[in-house]
Amino acid sequence: MEKRTLFLLLLILGTAFWGISFSVTKLAIGQGQPLLFLCYRFLLATMVLSVIFWKHVKKLNATTIKTGASLAVSLVLGIYLQTLGITHTSASQCSFVAGITVVMIPVIKLIIYRKAAALKIWIAAVTALTGLFVISVTNKLSIGLGDLYTIIGAFCFAIYLIQVEKVSKVRDIIPTIVPMFATCAVFTFLLASFQNDTVWIPQATTFWLGIIFCALFSTAYMYTISNIAQRYISAERVSIIYLFEPVFGAFAAHFILGEAITSRLLIGGGLIFAATLISELKWRMPGQMAMPSISKQKKC
Known about the structure:
Distance between the termini: 18 Å
Radius of gyration: 19 Å
Shape: globular
């Protein structure tokens, strides 16, 4: 199995962890303390990854730390805003709205970097957005505070994915992973310190179980895999694969929180899956050989 295919499968597995994490996080934090939750989540992830990547930790230098810290800014903002969104809306709704990242990435690249994505990426993005619309938009076509937080968080996360793609093209990104999460832990600790109502040792068991799950699976595993995967897969394609997350998120919310699974979820999920397939197609023009994929034209 080639590396690109392997990382596609590992990313899809990771989206299952991410989807589950919406329900786990909502259950863990209730209506408060999202910053403290993230602080412990990033701290535990940093400790685990420091052990796994110890040989890189021993060789840390100023450049690596600076790169990791720069990636942490957009990442921590994105995760914090989406975590905040969970406290104002359902876990399934939040996971659906977070999928807007798939459309934001090619638009940001076009506006800021003057870099247009391939036609099939735009087709896949529109298909995925249609699926997202079918799943998440209510009959009243309304958007709540939780959705607003999640959309802004999705924008920050889109910036993060683009940054990771750029860094991975010019250097090995693995050494930056531990500094990145360590910076996230410091940021969230400082922000939590400014909150007067922070209870540093919550008594709820669900809080600590949520920390363990999110730190190990949706943070340490998923962000490591996604960062390495972007050596072989572009940010646009990665974001489309991430749209499996709301599908897993909806099923997790049903079994963990009792939220309903609807026909809109099944239809929208089918469109999202179709978008993923479209992004992986090799276009064949009449009388021509199939065009090589982006990952074979250049290292993405």
